[in-house]
Structures are given as C-alpha cells and as structure tokens.
Amino acid sequence: MNAPPSLQDRPLYEQVAELLRERILAHTLPPGSWIDEQALVRDYGISRTPLREALKVLASEGLVTIRPRRGAYVTEVSERDTREVYHLLMLLESDAAAEVAVKASPQEMAELEALHARLEAAAQDREAFFALNEAFHMRLLELADNRWRVQIVADLRKVMKLNRHNSLLSEGRLAQSLQEHREVLAALRRRDADAARALTQAHFRQGLQAARAVGTRAAGTAAAQTAPESSSTAGSPSIASS
To answer: Where is the HTH gntR-type domain (predicted)?
Structure first.
C-alpha cells in the first residue's frame, strides 16, 4: 500500500482509516455511498482484514454505517442527527469556554487572540475560514484540558463535516459567526465565565438555525430540479404566461 510518509509508522489499519477518512470528509466518497471493499483491497494492495478494521474505526467515529449482509456505507446525516450533534457541541464547548475564561494563562489567551486574528483575516476565503474556525474551537477545548471532551468533540465535528448543508454556507452566516467569535473572545478577555458559556451556546444555536436554512433551501432546489417536466406542459399555463 502506497501510504503518505506521515502514515508509514502507524498500523496498517490506521493508515487505511486515515486515507478513507480523508476521502469521506472531502466528499469524494459522499454520504450514502456504498464502500466497495473489493475495489479498495485491490487499489490499496491490502487484505480484507486491515480494511475491515479500518471500517470499524470509522464506524466508531460515526463516519461509516455498517449494515449486516449489505456492507459499509458512508453515513448520511439526517436533520435529527444535525440537531443532536449541535446540541452536544453546544453543551461541551460552552462548558470548555467557561473553564478557559477562569483558568487560561496570559500566554494561552494570546494564542486564542492570534487564532482569532487569522480568522478575521480569512473572512474572504471560505475554505481558510472553515479550517481556522475549527482550529479556534479545538484550541479552546485543548486549553480547557479535558482529553475526553476533546476526543468526543473531535468525533462530533467529523460527523458535522458529512453534512452537505454547512451552516457557514447560509447567506450572511460567515460574518455573523465572526461577530459571535468576537463576543466570545471579549468574554474570555474579561474572565467572565458565565458570559463565555452563554455566548458560546448562542453561537451554536445560531449555527444550527443557519444549517437548517441551508438544508431547507437545498431541498427546495432539489425538488424543483426533479419535478416532472410534464407538470408545466400538460394543459396547465406555463410560468411565462401566468
């Protein structure tokens, strides 16, 4: 198997899991798609054992769904999934923000300030903004220093990336998100734990609302594209003539 050099010193199944994870999060293996194990075994030059171990790892992260007698599929994120993931992220990350407000050192606060400055500078580059937004959130969690919370949030954020209705795609959401980050950072500077918690929770509530709006718009577009052509030609007036 031709794995990147950075993966070479890891167990084979972890190398396979990382390569598949990258493809899933990049949507080259889109949500709902069947994972062709035979093709992967052939392409990667490996046996079924490390591949199946890799799929178990991805299933534990929520990225893959294994169906008995049917195989493995990339997980599809439902509206309920989105709502539940946002709820958990809201609770876990707001708790972390409150802790950081109280115990972060000046040097650690400076790290968050620097990350936020980079986020501000990336406001016109959506992909860079996505990456820096996640980096800010994850660094905040790391500073709160609870490795279990970091692990849980990291897995939940992977599931979020499966959602094709990213909240930041909603019109005006990127600027709104940036303003919410400013407010959270201001609360952290003031060492106001209650405000940091409340503002972080509001940030996730707004994110969920934006994700729903994107999903609703996408569903409407898909419905319009798949509507039978006969609907406007079978004896009913066309839009142009109405």
So the answer is: 10-77
Distance, in Å, from the CA atom of 135 to the CA atom of 166, rounded to the nearest integer, reads 16
Total domains in the chain come to 2
**What tokens does 4 get?**
């990147």
CB atoms within 10 A of CB 53: 15
Residue in the structure block whose two tokens are 């534990």 = 60
Q: What's the token pair of residue 34?
A: 């069947």
| Model pLDDT for residues 66-93, shown as the tens digit of each residue | 998 899 999 998 889 999 999 999 999 9
Domain extent for 23: 9-74
Tokens 């994870």 appear where?
21
Residue 234 lies in a domain: no
Beta bridge partners of 74: 64
pTM of this structure: 0.76
Helices of type H across the chain: 12-25, 37-44, 48-60, 79-103, 106-121, 126-144, 147-162, 173-189, 193-226
